[in-house]
Structure formats: structure tokens, C-alpha cells
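Q: How would the C-alpha cells look for this protein?
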Amino acid sequence: MKKLDENLNPSQNNVEITESIDVPQTNHALGININYTNTGKAIQTVKNNSGETEVRVNQERFASPELAERSAVEEIGFLQKTREVLEKDPKAYLQARNKKGLLGALKLAGIGKIKMQSPQLANRIERVNPNFPSVKQEFYYACSQYLLTGSIPNNVSEAIQASLKSLKSKGGKNALDFIASGNFSLKRMADMYEKYIVPALEQAKKLSIEEGQTSGDEYRPQTGLEEGEAMDEGQIENKVEPFYGGYYRGRAYRYDPRQLQIVEDSTSKQTFSPEIGEDIENLKKYTFTGVFDPNRENILHLPYKALPLPESLNIQEDQQEAEGVIKSLKTRVFGGQKGKWQIMRDARGVFSLESPNIVSTKTPFSFEFVLHQAEDNRLNDNPVATDLEALGGNIDDETNTFLAETQLQSHLFPEQVAQKVVQFVRKKFKYPEDQNVMNEMNSLYAESGANIMQTICSHGIADCHWSNIFAGELIKRLGVAQRIPAGFYVQKDPRFDFAALAGTGHAWSEV
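A: Here is the predicted structure in C-alpha cell form.
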């Protein structure tokens, strides 16, 4: 997911809003002074006029004075832990200096040092409740909070909580505890960071929605199956192997109050003919296998950064002979070949498969793709009118208050605005209890028209689609472009070695 326009102002006001920033009370920690300024880098370590080391913090770069204070204190913990290692055993530092996990381990150990040497200060900074512009920052906040409080925070996403719970525990302690304890060699600490913490972060990235997941975004069986009934492999027409989980993106949609329904947005598209560099050969290849249906548009749901390789496109055409015998012919064709099958891409980065020839039967196909960010598959389109225009209509007092408070925080970046909205929506709505409730909800909301926002507020339930429509409206009212892609969130089915692109579709937000 990406930010649509870095220059968008998160405030809807036409006048500049200035907000006074009070200087935090903590001016030193663990023997190092903190100097709060309004210029320069967010945080830097410098020598002052007296030749003493100090941490300089540009408080204008932080969402709140409390967050600026916390960041400064954590930086001091890192500095003092590093100084301790260098003074105690410089050889150990030299042996570990090339370890990728060294800096991360020292930062965690620094937080452990703060907790041990200054419990009162640790208690002060753990009360800070920041917003998270990225999964990575939310993950590191959760790690820090765990070390300060001894428990996994409940104000982070379920994906982050799950990733921390996955850390192996020994005697009630996990890798975070061991690294922060300072009872291991620096090399061992760095190794533990690489072995346990880095994979936990990657797991969080895969599970997380990165600016847009809602609490209702969970796996549901394919339409037509009863709750809990296993999906038959024969019913899965589209799959990716080897397995790759996460979000598979399709076309964006929105609620149209005039048509009283959810509609998909379509844009112009062209044949996808990327420039394939030599470095692609060294990347892991995934095979997308599907069935072309001549009675509908054939959207290719693919992960973010997926780069299809058109030359790998393989079509199995079934041709019926006069006697009614079906004869299969596998023909390897090239993307863009005139009069034949083509992989297409529209202006919003959505892939599809088309054949200029008339095809009357369902046709199996396959192609390969790699995960590689290139100019040809970059999501670089500018927001269109529907990404910016709010639906309007009344909302409840709680939501009005939230919008008013958020509008005053003019220093927030678009991603931060979106994340605040997501957290608000998560807490506000419940997921439908069963299919009957969901059907009633869909009918009620679709028929609400211009009253859609008030209806959702009053009803209090929403699945991933309606909660993202609600969140998207709030984001747009706050002056940030937003759209809702639909697709699949794929999790591993232990019966299969592939990713099954089947079941109820899901939705999330892009800003």
C-alpha cells in the first residue's frame, strides 16, 4: 500500500493551525542531558559548548511532547548501553560490529537499562500512546512497551500482538527479555535479535494491514460452504505456488449512494510489457494458475510488488471437435502477441487477462511472477475525484468529536491521519455474528443512500468492506485521499502447499 499524494494536507482547514508545544519535564536521563529545540533532525547526539554529550530533540518533528520525550529517553538508553559495552569489553564490540542485529539488540538492551536503573522514568515514558505511521514503528513500540511494562500492549494491532506472542518462551521469558537483560555476550544478543526479533517483524508485516485493516478482516469460507466446512481443492480455480501469504490486490471499489450499491471503479488499461532485467533471473519465481472465464472480466489478484513475466504465460485451450471430443492443446505464447492472450494492467495497477479472440469455454492458464519493485509495476497513480470526494451526511457525536480533535493535529502526515482513523473504527464496530446478520446488514447499508454514515453509526456492526467505507469517509473528511482495494487475504491452509485465491473477498485501505 502507498501514500497517494505526499503533499496532501491532513487538515481540511483553509487557515494554518498552530499548536503550542510544551517542553517536556524530563531534561536528563541516565546522566545525559536532553535539549529540546524546534529545528534540525528529529534526534541527534552532539557535544554541547561545554564538551558534554547531549541528545538534541526537534520537538516539531514529533506528534506530541510526550513522544519527543520518550524517543529522547530511548536514545539515551541506547547510547549508555553502547558506552557500557565499549568500556567493559571493546573486543566484544569489535567481534559483533558486523552483525546485522547489533544496533537493534543494543536499542532493546538500552530500554532494559532504563527499566533497571530508572524505574520512575520507565513508568513515565510507558504511558505515551503514539500513532503508528508504519508497521515497523508500531512493532518497535510494542517491543519497547513490553520491556517497560512486562506485558504485550493492547493498544497495537492484532498482527503485532500475534507476532510478539510467537516469540519462543523459556521460563516465562522470551528473546526480548534475554536481549534486554544484558546477561549475554554482545554477539549472542545480536544473534538472538536476528534469529527471533527480525522474523517476528516480518511476520507482523505479513499479517498486518499497514494503514487500513479492520477488526472484521478475517478469513471466511467460500460462498456456498457452511461455516467451518472444509474447502474442496477442486473448487479452487486460482492459486499461487509455492505458497505466499498476505494481501492479493484487485480492483478498487466504493459505495455509490445514488445507485444504492457498492461499485467498482474501472480505468483504462494496456498490454503489460515490462522491461525484464538480468537481476530478475536471481529472484524466486511464483506460478499463478487460474481459469479464464469468458463471461466476466478476469482480474488477476496479485500481491503487492508482484511483477508478472508475460513470456511465461501458458494457455491450455480446449477445442471441441465435430464428434464432441475435447482435445487439449498447450500453447506457449508471449504477452502482447497480436490476436492472442495478453496480460493487461490498468492505470491503478490492477492486472487482468484478456484474449482478443472469441473464447466460449473456460480455459486454464498459468504464468510466473516475481516479487520485485520496478517502474512497470509501481503504484504511482495520482488520486482521482472519487479518492478525494467525501459522501457527506450526518454522523454520531462520538465520531464528530473524533474528527474535530484530529483536525486540530495539523502536524500529522497522511499515513498518521489514516492510522488514527483505523484505530478509531476498530474500536467502534463489531463484526457480524453470523451470515443472517451479515445479510441484513448488507441490505440495510446498501439502501441507506445519503444516510449511509448515520446508519452505520446507529447499527454498530461492520465487516471489512463496510468498515473501510466508513473509515474512508472519515479519512477524506480529514483531507486525505483514500481508496479501498478488494481482493483476498491469504493464510496457510495446512492441507495445501499453495496459496488459494478463493473464499469471501476482503478489503483494506490505501492512502
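Confidence is low (pLDDT under 50) at residues 1-24, 209-229, 318-339.

The CA atoms of residues 116 and 123 lie 11 Å apart.

Upvote if useful.
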